Task: structure prediction
Amino acid sequence: MLSRQRKFLFFFLCFMVVQGLSAQQILSDSIERAIDRLLLKMTLEEKVGQMNQYNGFWDVTGPAPQAGADKFKYDHFKQGLVGSVLNVRGVNQVRKLQELVVNESRLGIPLLFGFDAVHGYNTVLPIPLAEAASWDLPAIERSARVAATEAASSGINWTFAPMVDISRDARWGRVMEGAGEDPYLGSQIAVARVKGFQGNDLSSPFSVLATAKHFAGYGFAEGGRDYNTVDVSALTLHNVILPPFNAAVKAGVASVMNSFNILNGIPATANHYLVQDILKKNWKFNGVVVSDWGSGVEMIDHGFAENLSQVASLAANAGSDVDMESYAYVNHLKEEVRKGTVSLATIDQSVRRVLRLKHLLGLFKDPYKYCDTTREKVYAMHPEHTQVARDMARRSMVLLRNENNVLPLQPQKKKIAVIGSLAADKNSPLGNWRLAAKDSSAVSLLEGFDAAGISYRYAPGVKLVTEGPVHFVQELAINNHDTSGIGYAVDIAKDADIVVMMLGEHGLQSGEGRSRAQLDLPGLQQQLLEAVYAVNPNIVLVLTTGRPLAITWAAEHIPAILLAWQPGSQSGHAITDVLLGQYNPSGKLPMTFPRSDRQLPIYYNQFSTGRPGPKKEVFWSHYIDESHAPLYEFGYGKSYTQFSYSDLQLSQRADTVLVSVKLTNTGSLHGEEVAQLYIHDRVSSLVRPIRELKGFKKVRLDSGASTVVSFELPTSLLGYYDGEGKLLLEPGWFDIYVGGGSAATLSAGFLYSK
Ligand code: GLC
Result:
């Protein structure tokens, strides 16, 4: 017999469904009612506590800290003055801290546990910019799912990812963390990553809250110098910077992190227009806005706030719900409410958002649902994840050059020399955001060759990094003097049929705080490359980097160049797979490669200018000492086979433009091609870029095969945003370009008349 309560619930649910309320709506209503009840019980201090986030700092399973910051934080946990924590991980640690809060604080509200599982956790996937080069949305989603599974199995329920900052300046170290220069590709990838992290059900123990960061404009720091001033037009804000955030919000991202920078004079953490007007009001975002680490207190350095009290009121009123490590809310928000500079309603709105996420995760039902030691043993590292990492790494690599089909390698017939300290490096391939992974846990290129049974002679050539710390927070010491290894490297090169050189950046030369003014091969690597080339030009360059590099000399001399980025844990195996042709490279650049760092910023979706040129006299937009063209353009990437495009057809239907093109594999190997669709609005009320990516499809074709690739282009994608963020759709002539990169020439045009 059903108990009376269950009977009531059954008939209540039937009644609600009859009322047309979905189960989702019913759940949502019940959560809001539960939050109402809890808010009524909470003191103002406890409410402010939910808006306070601390960094983890001690071995929670050890004795209680007795002094200093650790002690006051420990006490605040017990007093219910902390709502979330970051960098506490591992099931035992998480359980211990959750028990402290749930059992000792007055209301026992469970904590959220955050961590930067940006490109993996124990298993490290390729850096996000590398993944973006795959243009493979299902693969990118799978990759995020692996990160979520491993993090969640280790007690984490909130990842501070995906980073969706668009950037056009490769000097900025954090380009490695994003999806490149294009808002359309960036938006598609943002959605794939949010889905991967959050899954279809936030209550699953393998799902974590995702965070779209850094809101907003961080990637436009002047000079590519991290944390620097951002001053952009409203057009750039609405047409380039905001679309990936909007896409993430539409995909249901649970949180948004604001950025360190000012945006047009106002720090993002206190930017009412960004957070309250755009994100919460216009986009109806109902998740949590968390500050970046200390971005609140940094308003004082920005010259926007006099003290932490003002920081607290400015940030809270602007809609920043959680304060990460500024200690502004926990120490001053209660007083600001008493003074009347912040209303209790504002506090309640923020607290509601935090409590809502805890309900959606199921933490009120079971605060320890992420603390399963068996799940941790099985999923915090898993053989399947290794396969996903290797596959993702292969798909991310971009073949930049392959003269005379030097690649794929036929090692059995060739004497091979491998040169470069990075070929033996097991740490660098992990890239920048590898906090959970064991250092030096990547498969090196040499190990990849060994596993494939390739025989070779090896010489490091020149060290890239000299003595000194190799750590996430410290500057790397780059070798700019010791050339002692070049002689032996040249010797083994002389004697080889082919030389594989792994050169580029160390994984900790990009990422936060790692802007570079020069985009050359760091240290003495260019000297090594030219010395080897002088005795043996048959070089395959494996370029490892966290950003586009200005490798113009290599592009003019080296017959084969494979861009491997920082491929993660399975680096050596994935690079070997591609070099041997076991995987035919299919990557396409998500960010322009410049000829020189003096061209920056350089990007494909630029405006025409009034003097696009070229002209016989000097009066057109160019440099007199450098080409103004990129080295390799956005969307560029070669294959071991060849593809051709023909028979571009357009037709219009209601609110869709139908585009089709014939794609043929004209080469001798099967391969994958990313067919890309660009538009150009020839005349508009506000000038439009000469090319704008509006569609892409990744297609696999056998040698000699053809297929028709079709795109359904919604006419809404012909529009653009004005300075207020309103979508403008104007009649006029549009050119459509389809091809294997942004330099595609196959085009057709149509008159869009609305
Ligand atoms: C860092 C980063 C941010 C990260 C946060 C927590 O400074 O800017 O992306 O999520 O702090 O680690």
